[in-house]
Amino acid sequence: MAALLARPWAITILFLSGCLLMVAVSAANDTEGLPRGGKIFGPQFGRRDVLVTCQDDKNNKKGCNAPCPHRCRNQCVGICPGCKTFCLCDLGIPGYVCGDPRFTGADGNNFYFHGKKDQDFCIVSDNGLHINAHFIGKHNPEKSRDFTWVQALGIIFGDNHQLYFGVEKTKTWDDSVDRLVITFDGENINIPTELNAKWIPTTVPSLSLTRMSATNGIIVDLRGVFTIIAKAVPITKKESDIHSYGVTPDDSLAHLDLSFKFHSLSDDVHGVLGQTYRPDYVNKMDVRKNMPVMGGADKYSSSSIFATDCAVARFRSNPEIAMVTEKADN
């Protein structure tokens, strides 16, 4: 059904802006969209926490080291000189979906879309591509809404291929234990828990899933269509205390932080995130607000994780998507 590859020689991974990935031994280092002096640091061999290192050879001064922030301790942006560190989700890079879902649209504006817990919503819908997100949630009686997070994605593409990846409900989070669940066209997929282990289906060789860390992190790439980086994370006690999320011992509210890079969307694309890529998109939210919120959840609601029946759906089966990308591999 698929090819499995492992590349133990890739010691360090750098995550580049816009979700492109390069192994550290490569000379490329795209910093588009990052602050000046910024570089994205990912998993490091032999270390649980990523260490940002800045050299100052120009001024003949001693360099510095700093760990990534605790809530993104295995992937963050480091800015030199000075070893300032930030989580990727705090930088407003287009295509990111993080936390209590905060989206960054293609126009660079951040907004919240809360949806509803235990329901599915179309976040991208286009000819030959449809992406639904499954939301989990926690009710807070002091709020008029549920707290929600993206727990899984259901992706339909080409000639109705179906790819699912999500994170299992987890009581006590241990990042050394893999909690990702992946299926393709109804079959469970098991990728070795090794850095850079890769899975490629024989039926769609232009699709690849690569572990960006041994556990709980994956890069999904459909050649010429999209690149998605997904990281499974819990809600920490500190986060829960600050935001009153109400984390309990029986549920760490594990969810996905995501980044999307699209290569061939049409001008008619829609969905919560997809519409921001339209050339005629007009942002009607008040971006001056601290927390601009996109409403209209009902028109983005899908009946199931693989349904293409949301009111703004644009999906039509398009086998040429897989055919074109497969030819590109030959």
Automatic annotation (TrEMBL):
Signal sequence annotation: 1-28
Keyword 4Fe-4S among record annotations: no
Pfam family, any one: Root_cap
InterPro entries associated with the record: Root_cap (IPR009646)
Keyword annotations of the record: Signal
UniProt-recorded name of the protein: Root cap
Lineage, highest ranks first: Eukaryota, Viridiplantae, Streptophyta, Embryophyta, Tracheophyta
